[in-house]
Amino acid sequence: MELDLTTQVDQLIASNQASQLILWITLGVIVVALFALGTEFWANLWGIIFSPSMSFQRMLGEAQWVPAIVIVAIIGLACSVIVNSYMGREAVVENVFEKISLDNPAVEQILTQFDSLADQIGSDFTLAGNIGYVQDYAFQTQSIAVALPIGFLITWLIWALCGQLGSMIAGNKAGHGLSNLLSALPYVFTVGILTTWFNMLDLAGSGAGKIFSIIFQLYFLFLHVVLMREHGRYDIGKAIVATILTIVLVPVFLIVVFILILFIMVQVETYA
To answer: What's the whole-model pTM score?
Structure first.
């Protein structure tokens, strides 16, 4: 007897591990999104590989927000698939936990600084107190599948804002605006897929993973400099300055956003 749709779905969930099911769903979403983007996406991607300057000139003139949002979401989903596929390896998990361990001096310093900021604005939130929660839940398949796409979207918005500000400080007086940068920046972010893959290989103990991760990080910087040059319509020296300013401003903006969120939480608790 033919089963109804609900029964088939229940059997599918029961017969597959949750992580594998989520991976397949994520891959399906990526495929559908790529079809929705059409051939223009692949033409642009091909263009930034073989002729980045000309391609960025054209993309900066279009300022298409909706495809840009879809591309950034796809990048986040693709990275979540890569990360989840490696999180089953014991070496990777151990290396990740070691990097966020409270015994790590760099982590301890960062936690102290953030907790001091939280205390100054009257919040009892502590990053140190949430490390256990992060270790318990942040590396579950469901969390990664959701967190990475959202994280990429937030980073894209903040990066574009900082890029626009850095471009203006470097001398962008007759170039493109924020909407143009938002449109073209996702194609630079596509390098993040390969960087994520080789980072995971590095965590798994591959020496080649570390080397290729560095290579693609440098390639990201190269594409970013080319993008900033076309965005600001100035020479390569100012484009390098704009890129450096962007990289410096991004963590500053993230800290400001974090403080604002804590401040809002304190105000809500005060007047609740």
So the answer is: 0.77
